[in-house]
Predict the structure.
Amino acid sequence: MTLTKADIVESIQNHLGFTKIKSAETVETLLEIVKKSLEQGEDVLISGFGKFCVRKKRARKGRNPATGDDMMLVPRKVVTFKCSGRLRQKING
């Protein structure tokens, strides 16, 4: 099962006693802060959880899977995530 934004809002509502609207605003605010930081090329480190990083990918050769034609893929940025040691231990028991 996938954890959704609605599930997170509901969990905050239940744990902290916020209204649903206040819980949704809290989640949206947090996500906007993370997005803005990543847009600016900054890393986002959440202690005990992990680190989101923006990495640059160079232009490279690729292949169109539908036609088999060779093509050049443009340079781009991607977001990567590296979990913390604590999170890795919880996942692995």
Remarks:
- The domain at 43-93 is CATH 4.10.520.10 (HU Protein; Chain A).
